[in-house]
Fold this sequence. Notes:
Elements: H1 5-18, E1 42-47, E2 52-56, E3 62-63, H2 69-80, H3 82-88, H4 116-125, H5 134-146, E4 151-152, H6 154-163, H7 165-176, H8 184-195, E5 197-199, H9 201-212, H10 227-240, H11 246-252, E6 257-259, E7 264-269, E8 273-278, H12 289-302, E9 317-322, H13 333-339, E10 342-351, H14 353-365, E11 373-384, H15 386-401, E12 406-409, H16 418-425, E13 431-432, H17 435-447
Parallel strand pairs: 10-11, 11-12, 12-13
Antiparallel strand pairs: 1-2, 1-8, 3-5, 4-5, 6-7, 7-8, 9-10
The protein binds 6-diazenyl-5-OXO-L-norleucine (DON).
Pfam families: Glutaminase, STAS
Family: Belongs to the glutaminase family.
InterPro entries: Beta-lactam/transpept-like, Glutaminase, STAS_dom, STAS_dom_sf
Amino acid sequence: MSAAEAVTDALRDLHGRFAGVREGRRADYIPELTRSDPDDFGLALVSMDGHSYSAGAADTPFSLQSVSKPFVYALALASLGLEEVSRWVGAEPSGEAFNAISLEAGTGRPANAMVNAGAIVTTALVPDSREAPAFHRILTCLSRFAGRKLDVDEDVYASESATGDRNRALAYLIRSARALPVDPVAAVDTYFRQCAVRATAVDLAVMAATLAHGGVNPVTGERVVPPEVAAQVLAVMATCGMYDASGDWLLRVGLPAKSGVSGGLIAAGPARFGLAAYSPLLDAAGTSVRGYAALGALSERLGLHLMKNPALPGSTVTLVTTADVLPSAPSGRRERALRGRVGVVAAQGALDFTAAERVLYALDESGPERAGSVVLDLREVTGADSVALELLHAGLSRLAREGRRAAVVDPGDRLGPPDLVRERTGQDLPRFGSREEAAEHCAQALAAPG
Ligand code: DON
């Protein structure tokens, strides 16, 4: 028994809660899918550190089906860029079933890459050459997302290939509008193979976690797609991933997600978790009934709904005061008076836009008078993103223009290298190893202006 088993317990709990649900039916338009066990039910969660937790049939392999779509969309985006891909496939929710003729009037462009029509076009966009055939690229990409070599369930592929006339019809229709860049039969064949790629719920959770982790697989550490591509894919999953149930899902569960007719379901909590469920019994929209219920409950339990704001960080600013009240302040009256004109602000944690705004506000609050100086203590800051840095540099530069000098306690160079700080703030910001040294420097500077 380990402490982290508590996470597994939470998954087991949900598994127990929904294992008894018997609603829904297996997809039978791909005959091979009716061979799956309707009782199978697996749940998996993978953290941004690559920690993996699961319950139930999380190691049972099944074909990805539509869960493959966001990852092939990622491959097309990484290969061609958003502008080129968007010429061929849109990013609007269709409000229709996954197999509907969701094509833009006039152009024949499919509504989005999550419905079959758009997924077939997306697959057709994957570069294809003798040395690197499109399907080889797709399988390699899906495998990198999963962090292990995946393979094709040949029986599922053969079964869909034998019965998939609706998808072929869709491809021909798109082709007739000159909106498909390759031969319809070839495009659909590659699409069927991609849908037949086999993975487990644990694999799916790693794949979802890779999107949530900005395109870097958190288990293998490999960068699979650029961060902007991961964000683009998550955005389309959020609005279109659950077809005509996408709005309801976003309302209730609040996460980018993708369902598949074999019973797989993924959801991604950006910068938090990858989640996956497997259970073959489907609702009318082609979504796993138990998967929907369990991931919905998990999102609720872990507070993952994107529109809630659980991430409001605790405190960024840990101290706003003046240097005369620091324990180390000298006792002489004149020194104390000088110290009273030196503000002190200390911050902690990782600084992003929200946190940087708090620091800047505290810098303003810290000064009993505008002519004073200020010590900004960043020793407990663990990092600052580029937006936070830009804002802090701009704020410090404004302070200087208003005649308020600053000194920083920044042994870890959290504000960036001195050259950059000089360039951005227009001054040589004095840096110190301790709050005391910085306060003393500021007090001396106030005593001998200029
Ligand atoms: O093209 C099809 O119909 C299947 N290969 C995939 C559809 C699918 O998974 C829809 N998702 N719920």
